[in-house]
Amino acid sequence: MIRIGNASGFWGDWPQAAAMQIRSGPLDYLTMDYMAEVTLSIMNKLKTRNPEAGYASDFVSDIGDLLPEIMDKGVRVLASAGGVNCRACAEGLLNRAEEHGIKGLKVGIVEGDDILGQLRGGNWRDLGLAPFDPAAEPIDEIAPRLLSANAYLGAFPIVEALRGGAHIVVTGRVADPSLILAPIIHEFDLSPTDWDALSLGTIIGHILECGAQSTGGNFLGDYWSVPRPELMGFPIAEMDGPDRAVITKHASLGGLVTQASIKEQLIYELHDPEAYLTPDVVADFTSIRLTDDGPDRVAIDGVRGKPAPETLKVSCVYPGGWKITGEISYCWPEAVRKARAAGEMVRKRVENRLGPDAIEDWMIECVGYDSLHPGMVGDAPEPQEVVLRISARSSDRAALEYLGREIAPLVLTGPPGVTGYGGPRPRASQLLAFWGGLVSRDKIEPRVEVLG
Amino acid sequence: MIGRLYLLAHGRSGDKGDWVNIGVIARREAWYEFIATELTAARVGEFMKPMAGGPVDRFELPNLGALNFLVRDALGGGGAANLRLDAQGKAFASALLRMPIEIPTGLEAEVREHWGDGLPADCVVSAADKPSA
Q1: Which domain-ending residue is among A259, A286, A309?
Q2: Residues A268, A157: one domain?
């Protein structure tokens, strides 16, 4: 039996999860996902300022604290925390091991996903990138401005690091489920064409990759039935063989595992359920069979898969103008009417000063009334108070900074019952634009190394 | 009665570029067929129009008692560029679950049994089969 747990669904997820997964019961592998669409562009910015940065430093600090327990229990850790500097991330862990007096820690790194240098250097033609959207800006035009460019690697390079004896493997951009599929391939010695087993492992990866979203977090099915959410248990997959798994959690922790909680995660960020594409396999979500297997245990089997795509996904990020957001609050009476009037007033004042075109896009929302379901609340009674949220986009940063100066004056020059204006003036922040496409598999060479 | 879809189903939404996916899951497997008949792509697209401009693709997962809808042109150019508070479309699933559905009498009895005293009052749009004027 192997037990694979997850303790992070994104960079910034619950800091207590890893320790709870390791301390609250048996576990063989701990997986932690740090990737979101914008993560790597942030990491590149950090690395530009400091060549020793560019990875999820929280991972080194959190897992660094747990190293003695990880080594004692023999838990192996896999994390997409390496960002654009896996080596520095690994060295950070090795330094922490030395502080603890731990000898023999081996940290694997998986690189080769980062193609920013190649694209900036003009090698976009050799790479033969094909955009998803035919109307997208040509890659050669955005190449000089790119903030990040990464191909999505699969599970097999991670398996190579495990076979090389790594206790911990850190990666850059890998497909999220691949991080969880890798130990399954390793333990059951799957071949790259065991499509059904790779598909099951990928689907287990999809269930685990968002952390507590499969164990009662963000659970619309019946949130109030989730026990002790302050001690939220994160998901664990138990497997005796490559054809069946049980999704569960540590019994001493909170949260729940039911078919409903698993289903909510299965359909999360799903496109075509018959063709869930990863670098490892095309998984078929319509073949999944779920059955109850006791309290907080759901079995999954029957899964089929098809051969992996010939291409890998590529995601590039480049600057896409600027945006600003400011907020101020209005109370009864007529909170919504006053908030909307104040929003329009700001718009007119900015246009009077800068002309009608300086701001390219406006968004004026009443938070507390209909900002989350705009146009859907019908004749719902007005709330007692609302937050006016003004957001705007422009390629002209100075215009947005001026807009930022127009929020506070509402206190003395706008509708009454206004408050909540504190803190610094809103500032413009850079917007990120995406270029997504495909690259032929043979153009990307994963690099695996085991340090320590 | 006319009741909101939330009585029959739960779900989750997430962003895919400028598209939002909304998964809808029957609260009881036996209710899936009814929900699948009611929730055509056209009806979902029409209902979500105030929040999304584009056409809707619909996928079936009868093995999970679930439907998956892909709603296009929903995020003002994509999560990172979207000016809305809900930049990533996390609230779209709840929005779709507001949809009023005419629930036949037999099914209504099952729905009432399922929820018991916890049946959310604001999900009953009309106790009669047709909304009153």
Answers
A1: A309
A2: yes
Are residue A289 and residue A338 in the same domain, yes or no? Answer: no
* A361 and A236 belong to one structural domain: no
Which of chain A's residues have a Cβ under 8 Å away from the Cβ of B81? 320, 323, 393, 431-433
Range of the domain at A303: 2-113+152-309
Residue A387, domain CATH: 3.30.70
Over range A400-417, report the average pLDDT: 97
Number of folded domains that form chain A? 2
B16 and chain A: CB distance < 8 Å anywhere? yes
Dump pLDDT digits (tens) for A33-78.
999 888 898 999 999 999 999 999 999 999 999 999 999 999 999 9
Query: Could you report the per-residue pLDDT of A142-183, keeping only the tens digit for each?
Result: 999 999 999 999 999 999 999 999 999 999 999 999 999 999
Structure tokens at A49: 């300022």
Predicted confidence (pLDDT) at residue B133 exceeds the cutoff of 50 = no
Q: Which residues of B touch A220 (CB under 8 A)?
A: 10-12, 93-94, 97
Domain spans of chain B, in order of start: 2-114
Binary contact (A372, B81; C-beta < 8 A): no
Query: pLDDT per residue over A367-383, tens digit each?
Result: 999 999 999 998 889 89
Chain B residues in contact with A432 (beta carbon < 8 A): 80-81
Q: Which candidate in B28, B59, B114 is best for mutational testing of the A interface (most A CBs within 10 A)? A: B59
pLDDT tens, residue by residue, B48-66? 999 998 899 999 999 999 9
**For residue A135, is it within any domain?**
no
Of A279, A309, A339, which residue constitutes the final position of a domain? A309
- Testing the interface with B: which of A199, A247, A264, A270 to mutate, by most B Cβ within 10 A? A270
CB-closest option in A38, A213, A264 to B10? A264
